[in-house]
Amino acid sequence: MEKLLKPLGCEVRGVDLKTENRPEIIKQIQEDVTKHRILIFKDQGIVSGDRHVEISRWFGELESTFYKHPKSPHPDVFRVSNDKNEGCTNVGRSGWHIDGTFQPAPFSYSLYHMESVPKEGHTLFIPLTELIESLDKDTYDTWNKAWMVSDRRSSPVHPLIYSHPQTGKPVLCFHLGMTTGFIWNYKLPSEATASHEEYEALLKSIDSKINQDNGKYIYVHKWEPGDFIISDNLAVGHFAHSSTQAPRSEVGLRVLHRTTIKGTTPPKK
């Protein structure tokens, strides 16, 4: 059973991810993730780290690039929390982004499972194609000539706007908190490095467009026990709400498990 969400996503019930292995159902899930961009599986209980990894392999090779917390249930599961003794803290709070912009090819999928649900601690998602399609011509032209440079050493340069490798729709390669600069018209004769003022203006432009019209394109996911999310990382930006770091003494323990799937196609115009 499915329930469509607005402005993106689909809520799924009646599928038990802890045991589901039928090829036809896996194929349908793969197709639906591409179609809806995020699938929210309800009432999954606690999904073990090993099973989380098994589900992740439906979508490709896992790629784990982050700190391994001692309490992580599996080497490929990134464990985050509002308590440093339970998981990595302040994750996803530096700005709207997709995962893996510092890689030659950003992660293709991200899979999330909330093992311990606090009273607060929402995750925000935004459909990137609709965001781009909402831009006026001048803003689009500015974004379209920009290439982002990650803050990671020796990171590749990626176009800000490019075509999704599966759907061909316009999407963004961006991280508002992990970008050190922009290059205009990279690899063209008119190539130039954006000034500090231009850099700041572009970051502000992206953030303001995401939040335009009271965030009409933003989907706010309020986690419930048993939620498991599969996300098309290339099609959906996300951001961790400030409440994700609210003290455990006030909202309870927050523990989120995440896996990421290796990208196979570098962003290109």
From TrEMBL:
Domain TauD/TfdA-like: from-to ranges: 8-248
Pfam families xrefs: TauD
Superkingdom of origin: Eukaryota
Keywords on record: Dioxygenase, Iron, Metal-binding, Oxidoreductase
Alphabetized PANTHER family for the sequence: (3R)-3-[(CARBOXYMETHYL)AMINO]FATTY ACID OXYGENASE_DECARBOXYLASE, DIOXYGENASE RV0097-RELATED
Protein family: Belongs to the TfdA dioxygenase family.
This protein's name: TauD/TfdA-like domain-containing protein
